[in-house]
Design brief:
This protein has helices spanning about 5-10, 15-25, 75-90, 90-95, 125-140, 140-155, 160-170, 175-185, 190-205, 210-220, 235-250, 255-260, 295-310, 325-330, and strands spanning about 50-55, 60-65, 70, 205, 265, 270-275, 280-285. It is of the alpha+beta class. It has 2 domains: about 5-75 and about 205-330, 3-Layer(aba) Sandwich (Beta-lactamase); about 75-205, DD-peptidase/beta-lactamase superfamily (Beta-lactamase). The strands form 2 sheets. The protein has a 5-stranded antiparallel beta sheet, sandwiched between helices. The N and C termini lie far apart (about 35 Å). It binds glutamine. The site of glutamine has 11 residues, from loops.
Length: about 325
């Protein structure tokens, strides 16, 4: 196959042609497998593939199936962490869940041996703990609070996929076990079944790659949705969330991600990845075939290319993206 790079194929350096070329380059890649441990996820069409970029001045650029719905799964973990920081403050959150990369898979049953806390909020144990914090504040209104806030970040009303929720609820014994262990070590102090149910519901919220790009752009724009102008998240909470997305957002792939992509991001087993180029862009990708670590194969490949071609890596010569990207948000 001809491997023409996006930049050489598109001398005008137009963002739309770079996205289209990235999409075309990775479309033939059918390696990886759709998550099937949640039975309803196994019925997803593995061929869908979409990429979206949303800028902090409200523009949107897409390629492929950017408007195809899928469940947010673990991408929600970043946003609920941001919400919890705002609700109870950094110290109260830190008392329950740490910010250290665990180097373990997302569903690991491992806690920090010194503190007895989950290592970080981007793995299941940490996210269930964060749900315990939100449940402690909002009780039976916790899910509404979460879906409202995620909807504000996306700039449209999101809904939950009932079938995926029920499927995970019926089979999620490992997450229930994690919930009970968290209760045992004192990271949770509320009703375990309700808190794990909240976790299953939030994982089943339906989004598109465009939504993930818009949500990322809200974080990039220090918590303000660039399209609606609404201040969705607090500034300090956004900073802390981006830090933990950077170090822990792709589980035991996070070191390689930081090395090769270099932007804060969060992945989910529904096939979505949400990335944040601070002060500039949100990037959303969707492709359901996952690698062994549970990250979307085409999503990771697309992020690596976009980071290289657009100069997005935080340690590139400029830490605010390339001159080209800055020209996009003028
Ligand atoms: N609902 C999924 C689970 O708990 C989310 C995991 C993920 O996206 N990595 O297993």
């Amino acid at each position: 196959m001809d491997t023409v790079t996006a930049s050489s194929a598109n001398a005008d350096f137009g963002i739309d042609s770079i996205l289209a070329a990235t999409h075309a380059r990775h479309l033939p890649n059918v390696t990886g497998a759709v998550a099937d441990y949640i039975p309803e996820l196994a019925v997803a069409d593995p061929d869908h593939f979409g990429i979206a970029i949303a800028t902090v001045n409200g523009k949107l650029h897409t390629a492929g199936d950017a408007d195809h719905p899928f469940t947010i799964q673990s991408v929600a973990k970043a946003f609920i962490y941001c919400l919890a920081l705002e609700l109870v403050g950094r110290d109260a959150v830190m008392a329950r869940v740490g910010v250290e990369p665990s180097g373990d898979p997302f569903n690991a049953i491992e806690f920090d041996p010194h503190s007895n806390r989950p290592f970080n909020p981007m793995v299941n144990a940490g996210a269930i703990t964060v749900d315990g914090i939100i449940h402690g504040v909002a009780g039976s209104d916790a899910f509404e609070l979460i879906i409202d806030r995620l909807s504000q970040a996306a700039g449209r009303r999101l809904t939950m996929d009932e079938a995926v929720y029920r499927s995970e609820s019926e089979t999620g014994h490992r997450n229930r076990a994690i919930g009970h262990l968290l209760r045992n070590v004192g990271a949770l102090d509320g009703p375990v079944d309700e808190i794990v149910d909240l976790y299953f519901r939030q994982c089943a919220i339906r989004v598109t790659a465009t939504d993930l790009a818009r949500m990322g752009a809200t974080l990039a724009h220090i918590g303000e949705n660039p399209v609606t102008g609404q201040q969705v998240f607090e500034l300090d909470a956004v900073r802390n969330t981006l830090a933990v997305m950077f170090t822990c957002g792709t589980y035991d792939f996070s070191g390689t991600w930081a090395y090769d992509v270099g932007v804060p991001a969060k992945s989910g087993v529904g096939g979505g990845i949400c990335g944040v180029v601070n002060r500039l862009l949100g990037i959303g990708t969707f492709s359901p075939r996952l690698d062994v670590k549970g990250n979307s194969v085409r999503g990771v490949a697309s992020f690596i290319d976009l980071a290289n071609e657009l100069g997005l890596h935080v340690f590139d010569c400029s830490n605010a993206g390339s001159t080209f990207v800055r020209s996009l948000v003028r």
